[in-house]
Design brief:
One of its GO terms (biological process) is positive regulation of proteasomal ubiquitin-dependent protein catabolic process. This is FIST C-domain domain-containing protein. InterPro entries: F-box-like_dom_sf, F-box_dom, FIST_C. With 555 residues, this protein is α+β, with helices and mostly antiparallel strands. It contains 13 helices and 25 strands. Among the domains are: 38 residues; 120 residues, 2-Layer Sandwich (60s Ribosomal Protein L30, Chain: A), CATH 3.30.1330; 138 residues, no CATH class. The relative contact order is 0.14. The strands form four sheets. Strands 1, 2, 3, 6, 7, 8, 9, 10, 22 and 24 form a ten-stranded mixed sheet that branches. Strands 5-4-21-20-25-11 form a six-stranded mixed sheet. Strands 12-13-18-17-16-19 form a six-stranded antiparallel β-barrel. Helix content is 25%, strand content 36%. The chain is globular, with a radius of gyration of 26 Å.
Length: 555
């Protein structure tokens, strides 16, 4: 007579030690890993243990075929276990935006936020060649571009798995047939989304893309006022983007509204699982403009059209309108002299008014003879403190000088007000190079801080892999920088890549860099605590770093 078994007989793969199973499953590509998690409860538990910590993955492809390029980057970012929570893709303008976006959604799914953006260049690592690229593309495009021209094709993709954060896509709407952009609603939508999913009043971080036809300065200024300093905001202020979110009601708004911007909002999850650490956002910058001359004040500002203004100015504390035309002509002539071969050229610009002249010295280098000229306008504003109280503050906004008349400057933009103070700035490669070194040192100090916070903890951890580390980063660099600006390669990417050589990184070249965060990282060496805060930059590179802090040890 047979004896009944007391339980089910274990056989086959179920007899394999859990550590061996975990080792095998951790080597699977993401799709196969997802299937494995559905086999049984044991495997699901093991898979959850493998993916207990946040993770970023990035990949770059310069394949001239859009379909092949998407296939390459998808295979690379999904070559290891990951459950995508969001994705950002940056493509060349020679690729079809809608088609690229559709191909990425097809591979990653339609339930996660996905933003696809046309950029002026990309930064990232080609996983196949294991090589870092800073690929910047020319501005020419159109029907004359031949299909065989492969020099301006490529894309970079960043995918993130961030447990402990809720990630939402919030658009800035402009109803069709209307000219008003709903900026206040945009800011409130971000705060309401955060309040709905988090115990925090404001997001931990925001990555945003502004439409190239929209002036992002007043929009980011309102966000800066409404959110505490610890909220990190980065992005591209002059983009051409399309997005998809898991909320179908938002996806349907395309039929009734235009999207002037989109914000990828990272809010701390109110129901974060136990035993999970905290994801942190850090940001620093390299600036590429140099101030010169005395403080000036806007006497009268006249809109020339919807995109330009005529600015009459005087020396601060003095009467008399500046002879703007004479100043611009002097700068133009001295740059022309510098082009004749002098490596360094000092010259005097006379600021002429009705009744006096004031002079100061400017140094032009031969490589900066085509430097762009800006005015940096300081404006009084209010900011939200960490306690939620509005406090006085100052903001710095840049406007490019594009010409002028005898007594006025013509600038791009219409946001300057009578009484605003400003300085002249010029793009300067030496300043940018020095500032890159400063950004490198800031990130080096951040790396040391991350290590020191975890030093004692590591000695007591049973799981040595559960340590604080940099998950990855995103770089937003001005299109006018790069090798042609510095005379050297990889200057923009080295502050991040040399500090965190194994961390995933993606980036793009853009035409307006959004960067806002705590002053301890954002400020340059010559700034002080009372200096105005700039959120939309020119000739800069913005570095976003995401790190992970494990939970505190139980006593």
């Amino acid at each position: 007579m047979a004896t009944p078994l007391s339980g089910k007989r274990m056989s086959g793969f179920s007899l394999v030690d859990e550590e061996i199973v975990q080792n095998i499953l951790s080597r699977l590509p993401a799709l196969t890993f997802a299937y494995a998690a559905c086999v049984n409860k044991r495997w699901y538990k093991i898979c959850s243990k493998i993916l207990k910590r946040p993770k970023l993955a990035s990949a770059l492809s310069l394949n001239p075929s859009l379909q092949d390029a998407v296939k390459e980057v998808i295979e690379q970012v999904l070559s290891e276990p990951i459950r995508p929570h969001f994705a950002i893709a940056c493509i060349s303008k020679e690729f079809n935006l809608e088609l690229a976006h559709g191909l990425i959604i097809e591979k990653l799914g339609s339930r996660i936020p996905i933003i696809t953006n046309v950029s002026s260049g990309i930064i990232g690592v080609d996983g196949i060649a294991d090589e870092l690229f800073e690929e910047k593309w020319e501005t020419t495009s159109g029907p004359n571009i031949q299909e065989s021209d492969t020099a301006e094709r490529g894309l970079v993709l960043l995918v993130g798995f961030l447990p402990g954060l809720k990630i939402g896509t919030i658009p800035l709407l402009q109803p069709r047939q209307e000219s008003n952009t709903l900026v206040d609603k945009f800011v409130m939508d971000i705060l309401h989304y955060t309040a709905a999913v988090s115990d925090c009043a404001a997001p931990a971080g925001i990555i945003m893309f502004g439409d190239k036809t929209t002036d992002m300065k007043p929009i980011v200024a309102k966000m800066d006022c409404a959110m505490p300093e610890e909220t990190v905001i980065v992005g591209d202020a002059s983009a051409d983007f399309i997005f998809r979110t898991g909320d179908d009601s938002l996806n349907q708004l395309v039929y009734t509204c235009c999207f002037q911007a989109v914000a990828l909002v990272f809010a701390r999850d109110r129901y974060k699982p136990e035993g999970l650490g905290e994801i942190q956002f850090h940001v620093t910058k390299s600036t590429g403009v140099l101030p010169f001359g005395p403080n000036l004040k806007a006497v009268c500002v006249v809109p020339k059209d919807s995109e330009r203004s005529c600015l009459f100015a005087r020396l601060e504390g003095q009467d008399g309108i500046l002879a703007a035309g004479a100043i611009l002509n002097e700068i133009k002539q001295q740059r022309s002299q510098a082009m004749k071969g002098f490596p360094f050229l000092d010259f005097v610009v006379e600021f002429k008014t009705y009744n006096r002249e004031i002079s100061w010295l400017i140094t032009f280098r031969e490589e900066d003879t085509f430097a762009d000229l800006y005015i940096g306008v300081t404006k009084e504003t209010q900011r939200t403190s960490d306690s939620g109280i509005l406090t006085p503050g100052k903001t710095l906004e840049f406007y490019k000088v594009i010409g002028g008349g005898e007594y006025y400057f013509t600038v791009n933009g219409i946001g300057i007000r009578t009484g605003d103070s400003f300085l002249f700035y010029q793009s300067d490669s030496s300043t940018a190079s020095s500032s890159c070194d400063h950004a490198f040192n800031k990130l080096l100090a951040l790396k040391a801080e991350l290590k020191s916070k975890n030093y004692l903890r590591l000695s007591n951890l049973a799981d040595k892999d559960d340590k604080e580390e940099v998950l990855g980063g995103f770089i937003f660099s001005c299109y006018h920088r790069g090798e042609s600006f510095f005379g050297d390669t990889f200057v923009d990417s080295y502050p991040f890549c040399n500090n965190f050589p194994t961390a995933p990184v993606a980036g793009l070249f853009c035409r307006g860099e959004i960067g806002r965060g705590p002053k301890s990282l954002m400020n340059e060496e010559y700034d002080d605590e009372t200096s105005p805060r700039c959120c939309v930059h020119v000739y800069s590179t913005i570095y976003l770093v995401m790190s992970y802090l494990p939970p505190p040890l139980e006593s």
